[in-house]
# Entry
Amino acid sequence: MVELTCGILLATSLYLILDDSLWRRVFGITLLGNIINIILLYSGGLEGIAPAFVSSTAKIGLSNPLPQALILTAIVISFGLLVFLYVLIKVVNKP
Amino acid sequence: MSQLLPITALFILPIIAIIVMLFFTTQEQHPRVGYYQLLLCTLSLVITGLLFLGFDRTKVITMASWPAPFGITLLFDTLTKFMLLVFSFIGLVINYFSLGDHRVGRSQCYLYCGYWLLMLGITGALATVDIFNLYVWCEVILVSAFIILRSDIKDNTKPILHYATINITGTLLLLIAIGLLYASTGQLNMAAIAESIHQDNSALCISAMALLLLGLGIKGAIFPLYFWLPEAYPNTSSSATLLLSSFVTKVIMLVILRLVWLWPPLQAQPLQSLFIALACCTMVFGVFGAANEHRMRSILSFHIISQLGYILLAIFIPSQLAIVAALYFLIHNVFVKSTLIMVAGIIEQHCGTDDLGRVAELLKACPLLGLICFIAAMSLAGIPPLSGFWAKLLVLIVSFTTQHYAAVIFAIIVSLLTLYSMIKIWRYGFCQANETANIASKPFQLTTRQTISLIGLSIPAVVIGLLPIVIFPVLERIAAQLTDTTHVINLILGG
Amino acid sequence: MSIILKNFCYLILQITSVLSIQFLLRGHNYPGGGFIGALVASIGVIFYLLAFKQLPEFLIGRYRYFIATGIVLFILSITLPLVIGLDPLTGLWQTVTIGRTTIKLGTPLVFDTGVFLAVLGGFLCIFDKLEIEAYG
# Structure
């Protein structure tokens, strides 16, 4: 199910990126960035439910913290890049 | 400890430089800021020089004391140290040149901020052996490229938007590839991934690697994905073109070189044939694109792509000599191409344009510029005693001995077409009189700054051409280190 | 704008400032940390901006100091372990007892504070350059 969601959203985002309009292109990139976060999360497996804190009492069923750390970094970076893109488009569209 | 100190300084110096430059951006234009920048660049050159003194001793650093497959590991081997030395030398010369670049103007401090961010990204991308960390450093390089591209008094937002869209998509592909590699191997460390490939050669793993190379290929301007480069590079100040063309794509090539030798499936069929075909296409299409252009910097931008094809071809041929060929080609290309772009920048500064239809008889106007341009152009085309000849000869030899005859033929044809482009620049720009040229070619003198920066770039190019023996021992040492894959993996995982 | 909205937004700025510090301090072992703390703080700044159409007086044009201090703190947290001879970025912890409470202080906290200040500075820069133009 997750694979199907990722596939459909990925196709949507690529369709948007290939569009002529600048705004749609940026929306496509925004969407792509978010889907990639899901893919990263899924790559670590979705078995665990309990958050992996140091003081966690659960011995089994802990979720994999590494993809979460990767996603946090990816979110920060893509946020910065998107802000830059929005500013560029604002400059381009300025009369 | 003796190596840890320069390495730490290498990461901290750019950060401190960024803070310094950040505070200079408040003023309109500070007269001294260029000299501070030069001082910092010299310091960076000294640090990389100190690091290079111990080039034989590989240093592995694990961040935050986490042992290798879990934490981020930095590997300072001969490749990293030598390329950092070369890059910081070129950075010093380009920064010196940029002091007199009229198109940089008020945004000088932003250019310097961008330069230091670029140096930080390069250091990280060359040293890291963690693929997610590699992604982060690639983003640092990308952001710095945006800053550097913006350092122009003319409005060049449209090309940057193009650049940004394609490159951000590229980095996102890189991220998907990292996710897939993590899913199939459960590792992020390059050496640990290499070990798990030996156990399980799954299709998912190989396709993830291909996707990783695709993401890097977008950033490194490989064949079907190079269209951002000739659009963005000519439409900015010449200092910015110099910085980007000599650093960004070259670093990506070096990263690919490291990956190819760590991960055996990349040099096995079918990926090897695919990438050799792509390399040939990159060469051919780059040089065809150049034939259609009239501005000097546009021609040179297309030639960047075509020469990346040669480097890529050598990278994907599995032999020790091929590594030497790739690195020699890369270093030759960095020096010679920068010299040519600098010549184009100087012409633009004096004549107002570098369009070959509008400038003429520059040889009469400035003989020294003509001489340097001639040497550099002939070197790029591959005329015998110069560095380009040895570089192309090495690539031809390695592809001939490994029975890639089609690649040999393509390389020779592209070499001839490069000669055609260079003759075009030489003939229309420097020799032929042109009635329609509306720029009067009145004589001009190079300023001292321009002369010194031109000579500073062209002397290393001539030296490595006439006396290749000066850098061959280092390159052979790098090749020996890279080909000894098991040793590298043990070093990373054991350190 | 109405006085109610102004006072309300000022209140939100105060609450989020305190909350952001709380997030920053608990961040090492629990959800939170420098980045999230800075996001929460910048939410307060956005509300303030909506009501007063300008940044708080003491923040206008100061984003450079935030970013610079943040980066200096990064450098400290990288180099402090090196001085002792450990690998860069290794966490050094020290427990401090004040009265009855014991507090764990360490280089990860310094790093987090650096992230907090740098990210907050980045947001202030964005507001400084974009929003002032939009409202003013």
In short: Residues 3-135 of chain C form one domain. The mean pLDDT of chain C is 84.
